[in-house]
Amino acid sequence: MTLNAINAASKIDSDIHVLVAGNKCESVSKEVAAVPLVKKVLQSESANYENYLAENLTPLIVKLAEKYTHIIASANTFGKNFMPRVAALLDTSQVSDIIKVNGPDTFVRPIYAGNAFATIKSNDKKKCITIRPTSFDPAP
């Protein structure tokens, strides 16, 4: 799912940084660093991140978000758990389950159980976005 989010991020900016947080996550960081679209890997290793609890990861993501305009995650159980918390703490609206990027502040998402599509324009300085993984090919 991370590879799909990386591909979605590449539609916004070519300078893609990926956070790898966990316990004993060095091998995962090396794998992510090998993805050609990734320019930088931020690794945060702690036993607190071992079970990927939103309560533990959210403060880390919010702190790191100070330097970024877009925070992107997959719209899976994990992303749906922490991203609303991140958006709330950053005082920004979340753009959920996007299926297309039209520009750095314009996105398409399904509505009405997928029977229609809405184009969303976000004027927030920071954008918290979840992507529908099946709508973006994995990054090479």
UniProtKB/TrEMBL annotation:
Coiled coil: none annotated. Transmembrane segments: none annotated. Residues 1-140 form the Electron transfer flavoprotein alpha/beta-subunit N-terminal domain. One of its GO terms (biological process) is fatty acid beta-oxidation using acyl-CoA dehydrogenase. It holds the Pfam family ETF. One of its GO terms (molecular function) is flavin adenine dinucleotide binding. InterPro entries: ETF_a/b_N, ETF_a/FixB, ETF_alpha_N, Rossmann-like_a/b/a_fold. Belongs to the ETF alpha-subunit/FixB family. PANTHER family: ELECTRON TRANSFER FLAVOPROTEIN ALPHA, ELECTRON TRANSFER FLAVOPROTEIN SUBUNIT ALPHA, MITOCHONDRIAL. This is Electron transfer flavoprotein alpha/beta-subunit N-terminal domain-containing protein.
